[in-house]
Amino acid sequence: MQTQSSINYCTRENQINKLIKDQKFSKKKSYFLFVSLWDDVCSSLLKELENNPPNFDVNVVNSFDTPHSFVIWGVTKTPTLVTLDAGGRKVNVSEHVTDIYKRLKLEK
After folding, report:
1. Mean pLDDT of 14-28
2. How far apart, in whole angstroms, are the C-alpha atoms of residue 66 and residue 86?
């Protein structure tokens, strides 16, 4: 059975904090995609994500709406995918576009 996915656009810092807090209790992997809507690579990635959504939730964090979140996670370039494993104990940061496509299961 395949689960439904959702693309959640985070527009406020407290939204992201709540997702992280909930993730610690739910014990499921969380994906945070940091993007800049002015970047062509990010725009293409978002379009591909919307057209072919993976079977898990992806939280999209835009640099314009939530710049402080970029600072907290140490994100200095876009796109960047931050993955929190079950319980939030292990954090994986991917900055390479091909790796991001692979982790989001967007590559053919």
Report:
1. 83
2. 24
